[in-house]
Amino acid sequence: MSEVAERNIVLAGFNDRFENLDDSVSFHTHRRDAYDSLCETGLPHIKNEEYKYTNITKVLESKFSTLDKGNSDIEPAVLEKMTIDGLDVHKLVFVNGIFSSELSDNGMPEGVKIINVAQAVADDNERFLTNFGKASATNDDAFLKLNTALSEDGAFIEVEKNAIVSKPIALFFINDASKQSLYSSARNLIIAGENSQSTFLQYYMTEGNEHSFTNVITEVIVGENAHTNLYKLKNNKNSAYHIGTTQVHQSKSSVFSSYTFTLSGAIVRNNLNVASDGEGCETHMFGLYVLDGNTHVDNHTAVDHIKPNSYSNELYKGILDDNAKGVFNGKVFVRQEAQKTNAFQSNKNILLSDTSVINTKPQLEIWADDVKCSHGCTTGQLDEDALFYLRARGLSKDSARSLLLYAFAIEVLENVKIEPLKVYLESIISERLHKDF
């Protein structure tokens, strides 16, 4: 079957779903514009440079005959599987992309306004409509258009000016694939007011053994001098396919930190795009992927330094075993006006088998002349000298390898600021690395 035919089949699959959306609300103009643009350009294929190593369209054509959001009988007990010991959060739960008030916490943290997107759309919420799409205005990605075209629900969160939110706000996304394969999408909009401090966590899980496909877009608008942290955790089933896109716009002197942890899934695509659009902005991006089996993870990042005296630091690390495949494509742009920019980017990978694969491509595009920028990547196996050193001191081969791999991963983990989450991740990764090689 030709690539064009595949894309047409997939587009036809969600046409009925689009036509059943409420077209009486003002927000539907966003949906219609995205739908028309997507129909014109189609979904990406392997000849598209951005999806060269990750053919999501092929998966949609072969695994999902219709892009159905499905029905769900999720019980509250399911959330226990997502519980992290000692982690106290304000909980928002979405089942198949739809907000569940029964499973979510009541009330809001002080200094925070939270409503679900479906309510914001129904009420023609002015703040939501004004800020929707601002952070992603320059992104022409097909799956962002797909998300916009089918947007029904998600979280609209406003952190008030000067607010310090001590408890993380956690968004739990649960797919119920126990009865049928399904497509779910959610659209989140986070506005962090001036001088505010806040932390957000996104956690994904699938129930059932049918295939699921999740397409989640999160727009983050970081106000002047605001400090915002975003954690994303993906430890899903091997029947779960996921595209997560985070679009960030930073204002003057703001600090944004992103932490992306991918531990399992069928195909996972993590998109992170940051516009450093204010003098003195600071951006931190950390990623860790520990993969085995047939898991495929694609990390695409971009930082656009628009104003001077900004700083960005990016560190992504990967450990791949069995037939796992990884992709890293990191871009750093420094505009002509962005003098005195410091930008650092690093991607390091360890391959534990002859059949694991990594495709890595760090990029710098610099139009300013007074900057300090560097990028690099490494791919290899464990250091045999280090293994010999540890074994000479009494460690078994498996213990020595596990210790070295844990030391490799801890460089990312040590940046996690939420202690219970750090302990939880260390436990999962340590258990994974201590398996028999």
Describe the structure.
The chain has a ten-stranded mixed sheet with strand order 2-1-5-7-9-11-13-15-17-19, covered by helices on one side. Strands 3-4-6-8-10-12-14-16-18 form a nine-stranded mixed sheet. The relative contact order is 0.09. The radius of gyration is 21 Å and the shape is globular. The model has no long low-confidence stretch (mean pLDDT 91). Helix 1 crosses helix 3, helix 2 packs antiparallel against helix 6 and helix 8 packs antiparallel against helix 9. The two termini are 40 Å apart. The longest helix is centred in the N-terminal third of the chain and has 17 residues, at 3-19. The chain is of the alpha/beta class and 437 residues long. It is built from nine helices and 19 strands.
Key attributes of the depicted protein:
437 residues, alpha/beta, ten-stranded mixed beta sheet, 9 helices, 38% strand, globular
